[in-house]
Amino acid sequence: MAFNFYGPLLLLGLLLSCTATLPVSVSYQRPPPRDTLTIPLSQNSDGLTPQQVHVSLVGENKMRITWITENEAPSRVDYGTSSRKYTSSSTGSASSYSFMLYTSGHIHDVTIGPLNPSTVYYYRDLGQTGWTNSTLQHLGASGYDVLLLPGDLSYADLDQPLWDSYGMLVEPFASSRPWMVTQGNHEIEQLPPMEPNPFKSYNARWRMPYDVSASDSNLFYSFDVAGGAVHVLMLGSYTDYDSSSAQFKWLMADLAKVDRKKTPWLLALIHAPWYNSNKAHQGEGEDMRKSMESLLYDHMVDVVFAGHVHAYERFTRVYDNSGDGCAPVHITIGDGGNREGLAKKFLDPQPVISVFREASFGHGEFLVVNDTHAHWSWHRNDDDEQVLADQVWLTSLVSETTCKN
């Protein structure tokens, strides 16, 4: 099972142990910034052609298909295991939303399945910069199974047509493989008193499978992949997370249900990193860390991925600001491409818990090999080429005899 990660978008071999590792901080001559990409909403005149198609996981054997049309159209998906031979169909619903003077197209939402594992299905449905596009091309060539994105999708920041532009930019990739996302600060888009409700566009366009987990919020949820061998927690950095919050109570209940004998890998995604040696966004994840870190530690979460900081950084296993061989590895992967540029200034000296850091655009790949081992690699965008810049072998914590509860 391979996962790909990339961070904010304008539209986005050593065996790990608790032994000491020399920190690495990399700098090289980077190519110049690239212009913002803007893709017009309609490239068709009929108003019924599906646009901005993306798919997401719904449970173990279903997929959600989401797309937008300019005019009203049936919310129906035909699908099957042979090209142009559709033996099944599903219907769903459509909605739209208004944001000040902007009105979205018709957002269609259809769930298909049950689907057979390891099977190719065919279906038919009735930060946008040059660096983002480069990252997407690299992702498309990597053959991933599921893409995880820790927030900051379109960088619309109230400019609603940028959501449409982003949707069309990622459609060639998001329509063929599941994209599972969580919210970032650029998805809040709250403008009282005209738009008092945050995440309006994000919730309308990127519905995640909150009906599958115990969560009733689109801002935090969980799901299983690889036949239940991997459990993924998608946590919300910009919704309440203190011990009395709905998210905290949901997380406790969700973690309590995970059987680590059946699920050896446990991953978590947040937006604002809990550990960060970049000068940008210092301390912004600290309150959430103090509230939730012990929960993840007690349940032996293997890796915590974060975004927000426009650079790459990998930490050792760390808990409460100190190296701990039974704690999660923390990785900041907020480097997919964005209009704000890279966060190039790191703290000096580099903390001991920071193993590798570099201010470059790129993406990461998490490959689960078996119940005990997985391989993480980070690929820098060197102009239009992807270059392997950091990699590490990880051992699942439940396979470590010294870490078992």
Automatic annotation (TrEMBL):
Domain Purple acid phosphatase N-terminal: 50-126
Superkingdom, natural source: Eukaryota
An example Gene Ontology molecular-function term: acid phosphatase activity
Domain Purple acid phosphatase C-terminal stretches: 327-388
EC number(s) per entry: 3.1.3.2
Residue ranges constituting the Calcineurin-like phosphoesterase domain according to the UniProt record: 135-312
Keywords from the UniProt entry: Glycoprotein, Hydrolase, Signal
Signal peptide: 1-20
Reactions this protein catalyses: a phosphate monoester + H2O = an alcohol + phosphate
InterPro entries (alphabetical): Calcineurin-like_PHP, Metallo-depent_PP-like, MPP_PAP, PAPs-like, PAPs_C, PAPs_N, Purple_acid_Pase-like_N
Gene3D superfamilies: 3.60.21.10
Keyword Glycoprotein: yes
Family: Belongs to the metallophosphoesterase superfamily. Purple acid phosphatase family.
Stored PANTHER family: ACID PHOSPHATASE RELATED, PURPLE ACID PHOSPHATASE
Record-given protein name: Purple acid phosphatase
